[in-house]
Amino acid sequence: MVSLGCPKNLVDSERILTKLRSDGYEMSPDYAGADVVLVNTCGFLDSAKEESLEAIGEAIAENGRVIVTGCMGQEAEQIRARFPDVLAVTGAHQYEEVVGAVHVAAPIPPSAYLDLVPERDLKLTPRHYSYLKISEGCNHRCSFCIIPALRGDLVSRRPDAILREAEKLVAAGTRELLVISQDTSAYGLDLRHAAYPLKGGGEIRADMEDLARHLGRLGAWVRLHYVYPYPHVDRVIPLMADGLVVPYLDIPFQHAAPSVLKAMKRPANEAKVLERIAKWRAICPDIAIRSTFVVGFPGETEADFDYLLQWLEEARLDRVGAFRFEPVAGAAANQLPGHVPEEVKEERYARLMELTARISAEKLAAKVGRTMDVIIDEVGGDGASGRSQADAPEIDGQVHLRDAGHLAPGDIVRVEIEEADEHDLFGVPVSAEG
Ligand code: SF4
Questions:
Q1: Which of 10, 79, 127, 318 has its CA 20 to 30 A from that of 90?
Q2: Atom of ligand 1 nearest to the CA of 228
Q3: From ligand 1's centre to the CA of 2, what distance in Å?
Q4: DSSP-assigned letters across all residues of 1-12
Q5: Ligand 1 atom with minimal separation from the 265 CA
Q6: Which residue, by CA, sits nearest to atom 4 of ligand 1?
Q7: Rounded to an integer, what distance in angstroms lies between the CA atom of residue 388 and that of residue 391?
Q8: Do 85 and 66 form a contact (C-beta atoms < 8 A)?
Q9: What is the DSSP letter of 254?
Q10: Which of 45, 139, 147, 261 for mutating ligand 1's site (highest number of atoms within 8 Å of CB)?
């Protein structure tokens, strides 16, 4: 399995592998040992498409028996034109079809093992953290995005099913649940926020706050990704202040200038976001806010960009990622006037990164001397690296520990912070929760 793209795609890969495993297949660690190679593609940006096509080419060269699935499966003709030898092409979330294609490409002889179902799902992430996908699709129509065209409108999973999956994950060793979707704040809208009975009594509503509260009671860290600053998001902040949910919000703001947000057709595009952030910080002073921004969107003027920098200076977000605008085939934004020259995009990108690195360094420096919980990701020699509650895996910073060789991945320990740089913290464990 070659899995590309975002965590949402990773969850799809895990589901496909789980189904295949329960059908009696085994994973091969390399191309050579595989009867068939599955490439789960990403089609979000043209650069991601190119990466997907390269991965298909490599799989064909190395193995020759290739099935393509994922977002690029929507563009079967393009794939078949370039790689006429691919065995099958299926689209995103078509689990049955992918699994069916594997059965045709690599039939397994009947055996007693077919009845063996694994006790828990196969995961591509380490055992101690897991992505939890709560919905598919999106009701928004941001002008730079083709996700709704690829994946359709919002379809929420039932909250009782999500909770059951989370319970299983925690029982199997997960200590951090990363809640993902295209728009977590919209969760349950399509289910009209209905209540569902729970096996042990009580009920759970299809609503972000109620779901977060139930997940928080499982004892693992619960981290919310892809949330938009709607008024009802205010309701999850007290859960963070109470320690039920990690005080962290991943909000892809993308821009701050009103004219650019309007051209982007962004959800929750209102002027009061800075006030809302201030209110959240008053309730939960430790809240870490992570966001991504696009620079050089069509029509972005120097004044719009300055507005964004000023906004960032005021918002003082904890973590910021940035992209230079890249047209995605099929996105409405490509037709917008005022495309920004590449060298201007580069220059704006560099200015934005410089500013946000300075803010990040200042915020991290203020943590020196404090004590905080850190979840351990890796141990090597005498040291270890992990993350505070302000850091999601892969995308945020790390906490590097000395005198920590006795720890194991998944441990949550109290750490005293001794130093900081632009992105990471450095410290020493002061006690182990284990
Ligand atoms: S919120 Fe906008 S960017 Fe995100 S998936 Fe929906 S349409 Fe795309």
A1: 127
A2: 1
A3: 25
A4: -EE-SSHHHHHH
A5: 2
A6: 182
A7: 6
A8: yes
A9: B
A10: 147
Sign of CA dihedral 334, 299, 227, 5: positive
CA–centroid distance, 395 to ligand 1, in Å, is 19
Which ligand 1 atom is the nearest neighbour of the CA of 267?
1
Half-sphere exposure of 326 (CA within 13 A, CB side): 13
- The CA distances from residue 90 to 8, 43, 70, in Å, are 17, 13, 7
Pocket of ligand 1 (CB under 6 A): 138, 140-142, 145, 147-148, 182-183, 267
* Predicted confidence pLDDT, tens digits, the chain (434 residues): 999 888 778 888 888 888 788 777 888 888 988 999 999 998 878 888 888 999 999 999 999 999 999 888 878 888 888 999 899 898 776 676 788 788 778 876 654 444 343 444 566 778 899 999 999 999 999 999 988 888 889 999 999 999 999 999 999 899 999 999 999 999 999 999 999 999 888 999 999 999 999 999 999 999 999 999 888 899 999 999 999 999 999 999 999 999 999 999 987 666 689 999 999 999 999 999 999 999 999 999 999 999 999 999 999 999 999 999 998 888 999 999 999 999 999 999 999 999 999 999 999 999 999 999 999 999 998 999 999 999 999 899 999 999 999 999 999 999 999 999 999 999 999 964 44
Query: Tokens at residue 376, please?
Result: 């351990």
Global pTM value:
0.75
Ligand 1 atom showing the smallest separation from residue 141 Cα: 7
In this structure, how many other beta carbons lie within 10 angstroms of the beta carbon of residue 21?
16
Residue pointed to by tokens 């730079």: 144
CA 381 to ligand 1 centroid distance, Å: 43
Q: State whether residue 248 is helix, strand or coil.
A: strand
CA distance 303 to 309: 10
As a whole number of angstroms, the distance between CA 354 and CA 344 comes to 15
